[in-house]
Specification:
By secondary structure, the protein is an alpha/beta fold. Helices cover 35% and strands 25% of the residues. The radius of gyration is 24 Å and the shape is globular.
Length: 364
Amino acid sequence: MKFFKLLLFAVILLTMCGLVSAQDGDDVIRVDTQLIDVPIQVKDKAGKPLTDLSKRNFIIYEDGDPQEIEDFSAVAAPFEVAILLDTSGSTRSDLQLIRRSALNFIESLRAGDRVAIISFRTERNETEAYAVPEIINELTDDREVLKAAVEKVGTSNSTPYYDALIKTVETVFRDKPEPQFRGRRALVALTDGVDSASISGFDESRELLSNAGIICYFIAVNTRDFFEENLIGDCEFTMRFSQAQIRRYYRQFGNANIEKAASFCQLGDFERLAVSKTLYEIAAREMSELARTSGGRIFPAGDLSDARNAFKNVAADIGTQYKLGYYSSNSANDGKYRKIKVELKGVPAGVQIRAREGYTAPKK
């Protein structure tokens, strides 16, 4: 009995020491603070990836303050990739080409990489047809399953692009990543980035992608020429903008003009081209922001025949990504945006760095 009392006393003492230790110094911060993942790619002055760097080659700053690197993954670590295939608008007639390009991309990935497939589908109710994002399959490294999933990709009558970005975060990447995938999650979107049917907006999708630390790659297909060729003429027989797109255009000039055009048929040919130009400019700006701030890239594709090479370049980029992680020295839960800067030491002159540019701190 005396032995058990001594054992119980020892357990209580150790527990109390653990509680004290948890309140001493950095430990309490690390319990309450998010590990910030920073994907990084490094190339030499000739543009060739440097793949043999180690943790000691990197220095990270947050808002100008140096941070202690706690986690490091070399380029050989696997990735989780969500492929978003936009099969609306002018791409509908090239569905087989899109499927082949996606399959080639999947085959270019490494054995341990996991992939999910997202596209759009058209649903109908009693009065109208409308497009929704569809998760065709969730993350898997089974290539046969992925091949079957790609063959299921269909077309849609409009583009719920923002909704698809949000669904990717909330469904494909809803669970915390396993340790080997921390900071190694990517969205690869084949799209022109012009939304026509989403319930949500760009700001919401941007915030979710940023908070989740997802690297954004875009294979930006040029559909503008095709769209505008079919935009002019009798409004009953041409391609047309959605009401959401018309409102997005007029919103650029202030709220007073949003209701100026109640429908597409009230727009003249000149105004239709002006709307189209603005919408494509907005799309390019939004894709550029997501890619730049997340550490990703945009690969332009003049048409879908260029998509295969673009996908190949994305796969090569993913395969040469480092990932660093740190606990912020700023423990304030103030909801403010914090800038990240990465520097290198002990490397040849002229190296190029591409990394996540920042994140938004959690709120209280």
